[in-house]
Amino acid sequence: MSSHLAQQHSVPAITSAVQLLSARRLIVKIGSALIADAETGEVRGPWLEMVIEDVVRFFARGQQVIIVTSGAVALGSCRFNYSDRSLRIQEKQTAAAIGQVQLMLSYEKSLKRHGFGLGQVLLTRSDIDDQHRRLNARSTLQQILEVGAVPVVNENDTTATAETCFGDNDRLAAQVAQMVNAEVLILLSNVDGLFTEDPHDNPLARLVTEVRCITPAIEAMAGHSASRHSSGGMVTKLMAARIAMDAGCKMVIANGNKPYPLTAIENGGPSTWFLPRAKDRATRD
Ligand SMILES: Nc1ncnc2c1ncn2[C@@H]1O[C@H](COP(=O)(O)OP(=O)(O)O)[C@@H](O)[C@H]1O
Ligand SMILES: N[C@@H](CCC(=O)OP(=O)(O)O)C(=O)O
After folding, report:
1. Does 210 sit in the ligand 2 pocket, CB within 6 Å?
2. Comparing C-alpha atoms, which of 24, 12, 16 is closest to residue 61?
3. Record-annotated residues binding substrate (predicted)?
């Protein structure tokens, strides 16, 4: 393992810019806390507009982006007077069924402003695990890109049961990255990256800027999520990193709560890069 602990130092701009610019295909994962306003239960429209402008910039220079978005449960649950207790599976399914519509309408409206269509793709665990369904999902994602639309993926929460669900979009995004041989997976979250401890618990925690091997010491840093509708925390982000790195895909965690968060990464803003060894690139067909 070589992890460079830096006291809030940013990754050198050249590193991030090189990694992003050289990627033919990227996956951008957006967490619930970024897309859904916890107070109003509405989509954070102005923020989404900036992310979409970033995404459009990638397409303009010949790159491809697939978005994996959370937020369906967070948006839908605000239509019920659920107390602060966690939602039961049936409530999550109902909330997701309602929230997904609002989520897609917001993406569609923003993409349309830039001349792009939206292709909604809802995946279940078996779409990844079953070879035939996996190839079918990959073909659909590629077809959507070829007709000039942007694939926007989420888990099919409405039909997912406790036994069949993915549970979090960090790992789903990593599986999609492996499926379509993406070179870079970007996890936009509400923190700058992996810290030595949860920075919400310890403000002195230090940002880890680069990880080349996920060791027990790295795993010990990761805790769970404090956000009500988020399901990943840092634990699932490290699981996602393993999936991505095993496929030879680079992964970066950065804070989405910035104007133009993808541009911020490219300009060397704070982030954690997970960099696989060159020989690890093995695609799963
Ligand atoms: N070592 C760590 N470094 C950074 N964040 C951590 C760590 N351990 C736990 N966390 C928590 O993980 C959260 C990010 O995950 P999550 O809440 O699921 O967001 P997202 O919606 O982006 O998936 C952070 O807000 C933080 O509270
Ligand atoms: N499919 C779920 C994803 C939940 C999830 O992974 O949330 P997060 O940890 O905020 O990315 C939804 O749309 O709410």
Report:
1. no
2. 24
3. 70, 157, 169
**ipTM of the prediction greater than 0.95, yes or no:** yes
CB of 64 within 6 A of ligand 2: the answer is: no
Residue 248's domain comprises 3-282
Of all protein residues, the one whose alpha carbon is nearest to atom 3 of ligand 2 is 70
**Residue nearest atom 16 in ligand 1 by C-alpha distance:** 233
Kindly state if the Cβ of 256 falls inside 6 Å of ligand 2: no
As a three-state string, the secondary structure of 240-268 is HHHHHHHCCCEEEEEECCCCCHHHHHHCC
Give pLDDT tens digits along the chain (285 positions).
Answer: 444 444 444 556 568 888 999 999 999 999 999 999 978 889 999 999 999 999 999 999 999 999 999 999 999 988 776 656 678 888 889 999 999 999 999 999 999 999 999 999 999 999 999 999 999 999 999 999 999 999 999 999 988 877 777 878 999 999 999 999 999 999 999 999 999 999 999 999 999 999 999 999 999 999 876 666 666 689 999 999 999 999 999 999 999 999 999 999 999 999 999 999 876 555 444
